[in-house]
């Protein structure tokens, strides 16, 4: 899991100039808020729309995974502090399971990471991107434009509960509380706008996941362009990873991102310029659990424990289902050739007779495949070319072959021949992963005292799925 926060310059240039005291009246009110028929938003008191007075529910469709819900507090200027906070930040979260992502999201939102309250929601979101049911790495990149911070000052927030909400918490079942009110309330939140790019890559290994995450970071704008342009499913020619992208915005004019023709940089500028005091959104609320409002002498400690037990139990049950489901995910097919590493070692027979300063020849495997010094520039080598340390011909006994041992790294195929080159072939050895679990494939002792059956030439080639190019130039299968 990776959680990183760094300042950015590319997304935005400056915060709105009028950010010193933003209006809270029009700040992204709850989706489930319904004004009475005929009621005019313009005449409702400003503090009635402050999201700091509302409970929060889990919502997989929102960039921060939560949305504001029912108003639960009666607060005014004496209880709320609004401070100017013009800033731009990037928060990138990488994870390879929904439970890991839940820990990251909980940390991001300031609550206990061990409870896994977001696991089911993240799994739902991830499953919508992972139609092939492969092991994955998911990268969520949040680009935030911050304007102001809103904080609740009192520590005894249960005293500011609306009467009907207080009665609801004290008398209704834990299930009703979770369903109607939600599991959280906020003690602090930031007003601004955010653009979230989510990329899910199907991976075979941690190495591939790391490579793909680095690619997303290095080519961020390219992935944004694919996502907002409608090309949500694609494959990387660099890391050979199939991936899906999606994006979400909160605050500003989101319709700007609907353009399919404008450059991404222009869309970023236009979206930033569209951010006003009237279309700010809630960014990164600092949450507390709803049952903490009940854990006071003037409320009901027993009821607090009941609500906590019910909600955390439900989350643990959801987490268990997610873990079981993700254990069934299969590794993606690795679509990039593996680079051959290691050496080819050609040695004397086990008897190692005679007086030799060196008993074997060693060279990089890929040199043996593509070196122009080979007999025909195709990996075919004659013993007379294979000079050991000190330029000696340790693989020959006078004018005869004296070869009996071979060591091959993973990904190399070796064919052995008599003097007539590729005319008389002896054996073929393929160093597959199964054959090289201990680091190399060891072949010996194949020396034959019959001069007509001695190995004189070797041809080295790369097995399918491997390459002697480096990772930057290797191509996808």
Give a topology summary.
Layout: E1 2-7, E2 54-58, E3 66-71, E4 80-95, H1 98-109, H2 119-129, E5 136-152, H3 163-171, H4 174-180, E6 184-202, H5 206-218, H6 220-228, E7 233-235, E8 242-250, H7 264-273, E9 281-289, H8 301-327, E10 338-339, E11 343-347, E12 360-364, H9 365-370, E13 380-382, E14 396-397, E15 400-401, E16 405-408, E17 412-417, E18 425-430, E19 441-444, E20 457-462, E21 466-467
Parallel strand pairs: 10-21
Antiparallel strand pairs: 1-4, 2-3, 2-6, 4-5, 5-6, 6-8, 6-9, 7-8, 11-12, 11-16, 13-20, 14-15, 16-19, 17-18, 17-20
Provide keyphrases for this structure.
477 residues, alpha+beta, Gamma-B Crystallin, domain 1, 2 domains, 9-stranded antiparallel β-sheet, 4-stranded antiparallel β-sheet, 9 helices, 21 strands, 22% helix, disordered N terminus
Cα-atom Rg, whole angstroms?
Answer: 33 Å
Number of strands: 21
Span from first to last CA? 29 Å
The count of domains is: 2
Question: What low-confidence regions span 5 or more consecutive residues with pLDDT below 50?
Answer: 1-49
The helix/strand order is: EEEEHHEHHEHHEEHEHEEEHEEEEEEEEE
**Strand content of the residues, in percent?**
25-35%
Find the structural class using helix and strand composition: alpha+beta
- Molecular shape: elongated
Average pLDDT over all residues: 84
- The helix count comes to 9
Q: Give the biggest sheet.
A: 9 strands, antiparallel
Q: Helix amount, in percent?
A: 10-25%
């Amino acid at each position: 899991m990776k959680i990183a926060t760094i300042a950015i310059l590319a997304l935005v240039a400056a915060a709105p100039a009028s950010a010193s005291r933003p209006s809270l009246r029009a700040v992204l009110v709850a989706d489930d808020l319904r004004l009475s028929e005929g009621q005019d938003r313009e005449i409702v008191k400003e503090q009635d729309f402050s999201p700091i007075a509302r409970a929060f529910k889990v919502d997989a469709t929102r960039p921060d995974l939560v949305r504001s819900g029912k108003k639960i507090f009666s607060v005014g200027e004496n209880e709320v502090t609004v401070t100017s906070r013009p800033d731009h930040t990037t928060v990138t979260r990488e994870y390879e399971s929904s439970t890991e992502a839940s820990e990251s999201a909980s940390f991001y939102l300031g609550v206990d990471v061990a409870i896994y309250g977001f696991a089911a929601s993240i799994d739902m979101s991830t499953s919508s991107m992972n139609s092939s049911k492969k092991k994955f790495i998911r990268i969520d990149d949040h680009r935030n434009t911050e304007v102001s911070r809103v904080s609740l000052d009192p520590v005894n927030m249960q005293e500011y509960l609306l009467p009907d909400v207080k009665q609801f918490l004290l008398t209704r079942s834990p299930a009703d509380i979770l369903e109607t009110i939600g599991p959280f309330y906020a003690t602090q939140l930031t007003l601004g706008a955010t653009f979230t790019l989510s990329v899910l890559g199907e991976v075979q290994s941690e190495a591939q996941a790391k490579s793909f995450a680095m690619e997303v970071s290095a080519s961020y704008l390219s992935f944004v362009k694919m996502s907002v342009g409608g090309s949500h499913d694609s494959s990387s020619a660099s890391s050979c990873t199939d991936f899906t992208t999606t994006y979400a915005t909160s605050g500003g004019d989101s319709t700007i991102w609907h353009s399919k023709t404008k450059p991404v940089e222009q869309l970023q500028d236009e979206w930033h310029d569209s951010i006003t005091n009237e279309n700010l959104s809630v960014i990164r609320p600092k949450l507390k659990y709803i049952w903490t409002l009940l854990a006071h002498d003037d409320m009901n400690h027993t009821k607090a424990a009941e609500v906590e037990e019910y909600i955390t139990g439900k989350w643990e049950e959801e987490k268990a289902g997610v873990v079981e489901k993700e254990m069934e995910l299969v590794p993606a097919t690795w679509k990039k050739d593996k680079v051959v590493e290691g050496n080819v070692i050609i040695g004397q027979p086990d008897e190692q007779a005679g007086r030799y300063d060196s008993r074997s020849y060693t060279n990089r495997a890929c040199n043996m495949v593509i070196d122009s010094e080979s007999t025909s520039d195709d990996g075919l080598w004659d013993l007379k070319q294979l000079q050991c340390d000190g330029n000696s011909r340790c693989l020959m006994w006078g004018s005869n072959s004296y070869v009996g041992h071979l060591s091959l790294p993973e990904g190399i195929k070796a064919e052995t021949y008599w003097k007539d080159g590729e005319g008389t072939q002896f054996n073929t050895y393929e160093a597959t992963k199964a054959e090289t679990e201990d680091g190399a494939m060891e072949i010996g002792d194949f020396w034959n005292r019959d001069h007509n059956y001695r190995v004189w030439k070797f041809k080295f080639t790369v097995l399918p799925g491997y390459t002697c190019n480096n990772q930057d130039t290797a191509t996808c299968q």
